[in-house]
Amino acid sequence: MKFSFSPTIKMKLFMMGLVAVVALASLSFISMNAGNAVARATNENHVMLEQSQRLSDLRVSTIELVLAAMDSIIDADEGYVYDERLEVMDSSIDALRDSQELIQNAADRIGQPELAAEIAELTNTIDRVVRQELVQAIEARAGEEAYAGFDDDIDEFGEGLVDILAEMEDRIGVMLRESGTRLSKSAADSSQGAITAGLVFVTVLIAFLYVTGSTITKPIAYLTTVMEKLADGDLEVEVETARRDELGKMAVAVQVFKDNAGEKIRLEQEQEASKQRAEEEKRQTMMEMADRFERQVKQVVDGVSSSATEMQATAQQMSATAEETTQQSASVAAASDEATANVQTVAATAEELSASIAEIGRQVNQSATIAANAVDEAEATNSTVQGLAEAASKIGDVVKLINEIAGQTNLLALNATIEAARAGEAGKGFAVVAGEVKNLANQTAKATQDISDQITAIQDETNDAVGAIERIRDVITEVNEIATTIATAVEQQGVSTQEIARNVMQAARGTQEVNQNIENVSKAAGETGTAAGQVLTASQEMSRQAEGLRGEVDKFLQEVRAS
Predict the structure, then answer these.
(1) Whose CA is closest to 484, among 476, 473, 496?
(2) CATH says 282-562 is which class?
């Protein structure tokens, strides 16, 4: 038995996609490897660049350290080292010690790990010579010979450290340039390889897609031609169904479509015959429906005419009843208006009485408020005076402190005078200054005593003011209590009067509501009469429409039967 393999379109498309994916994956793999190599080299260059920059910073920092030390030797006569120079020395030494790991890595990179140990040893030596021995010598005011020795040591150790750092920086710079050259060549080679591989993959993919696409597009074009002929009504066209792929299944479906089209034509012919029979049956059914419709509509029209007659009689009766209700409502409304006027007169009198009591209560409350405000102002004034007393007391404490400081200053001036006397001729200028300080201390003590006396007088006056304010506050508080009692009594009278006025007003509103309800009844009676007239008119119109409906139904049935 002979075996034949016919791949489906799905399989062909899958193979096309698979080839494209393999090509893309291969190209991506090549590009990724090249990119990783470039990335590693770039990272290595970045590390070397950072080491080179850091070594340069350390070299500059060491030079600044040497210059700060030399400047300190030049200004040794001052007897101390300037703070900014100490900061330069400290920051330079700390930077060298903090960078030991970086220095060790850089030394290992250039193949001279022993340089890191030399830098560490020189750092310790410079630290000892500059930050310890030199500073101590300057503070001790050492001689020129000692400073000359420090100058030689600093030159020797500083220059040695700077030379080592410069050598390491130069070596790493050379390595960085060589690595950059290799990186550029590697990137160019990787780019060229990726382009070549991409062109090869694209060429193979295009050829594969063209061959595979041809095996799909040609059968599709054939099926398209067949379906266009079938759409134009050509049922004699032949359909090839020998293929075993999806296009073969489509051809089978087209063959089924062709067969169904022939069957459709046959069914349409049969449906036309059935349609003629149905038209005849429909006409007979319409005649029967017209007869039934005539009987049913006639019954409805007769019922509507009867109901319209009854509505006319009812509407006439409603109109007479509404007229009588309107007349009775007018009589009741007149009596209600008179009662409302009497109640409103009483309510107005009660409101005037309530307003008078309210005005009295407002005046009393205002008096109580003024008294309460006076109490608050007295309290505030008392607090202010108390604060003044406390401030005076605090000023007294400060004056006492100043007096103590003046005494201590006087004592120090005395000690300085004694020391100046011991110093002899060299201390005369200092003795003059000490005398001036002593005079200033005596003047300060006298001034503080005067201030203390004034503060004592202020405190006495403040205490008298506090007592007077306390007495005023007590009197105002008593007046406030009396005013509050009067206000409470007036308020109770006002509440009683307002209650009377409220009850009278409620009675007035009640009579007004009765009057309003009577008016509503009268209005409703009038509206009822109007509605009754409208119902009468509507019933008459309904009778006329019923007669018209009967005529239209007869006309419709005649047309239906004629059709």
Answers:
(1) 476
(2) mainly alpha
